[in-house]
Amino acid sequence: MKKHKILNILKRLREEESLVGLLGKTFKLAHTSEPLVLPLCTGQAREEYIKAHFAPDTVVPDELMIEETVSPEFKKAREDFATWYDNKDEETQELIDEISDRTYYIIDEEEYDDFIEELDDEGMTTADEFMDRFEAEFESESDLIDWVESHLSDCGYLNDVPDFIKNHIDYQSVWECEMRYDYSTIEYKGKIYLFNQG
Question: Looking at the domain assignment, is residue 158 inside a domain?
């Protein structure tokens, strides 16, 4: 099926109902008996679905989103998260959005609430404050120390240092004795979140 045919299908569907109203509805495409469920399948899962259900020369527009099969528990968790999010004020929603965009390990409502409390203890209550101060998220202290080396290199401090000396720098000591005073950390659920002092 060519792009213009798929766009026409989408246009007809949009005329009948908004895409929001299509959640969970199944439509059959003319060239296949396979159902097309709108929306949500992204990334690699979307590419695999397209490869399995469309001819190789088919251009599938970005507007066409395909629902991946999810468990009832996942759907309930998604609905609970949406309800929790909608009950937050706009400023908190913006902060949650920034945390979501910049971190990997904070994923559910309780974790967001707890992490926001930790941020508040560090004087960060808005998305802008978080964006200005957030540097990185680390799985372990060794990842933090790797960041120290990378940061020093990126800043040019190691440019003229010969490798035979550079290879013997104690970056743990550099962090503990020098750099940690320019940063603050939050340790949350075994992960380390690094912030500049602003």
Answer: yes
**Mean pLDDT computed over 114-119:** 97
Are 54 and 60 in contact by the 8 Å Cβ rule? The answer is yes
Q: Which residue has the tokens 């913006």?
A: 94
Same domain, 18 and 85: no
- The residues with which 134 forms a beta bridge, in sequence order, are 195
Question: How far apart are the C-alpha atoms of 74 and 167, rounded to whole Å?
Answer: 47
What residues are paired with 194 via a beta bridge?
136, 185
Within 8 A by CB and 6+ apart from 124, the residues are 130, 133, 195
Are 90 and 126 members of one domain?
yes
Report d(CA 34, CA 66) in Å as an integer.
Answer: 12
pLDDT tens figures, 67-93 = 555 677 877 888 888 899 999 999 999
pTM of the full predicted structure?
Answer: 0.64
**Mean per-residue pLDDT, 112-123:** 96
User: Looking at residues 126-146, what average pLDDT do you find?
Assistant: 96
Domain count, the chain: 2
Name the nearest CA neighbour of 39 among 24, 51, 49, 29.
24
Provide the domain limits for residue 93: 73-196
Mark whether 44 and 92 lie in a shared domain.
no
Phi, psi angles (nearest 5°) of residue 139: -75, -30
Residue 43 has pLDDT above 80, yes or no: no
| Residue 63 included in any domain | no
Q: Are residues 93 and 121 in the same domain?
A: yes
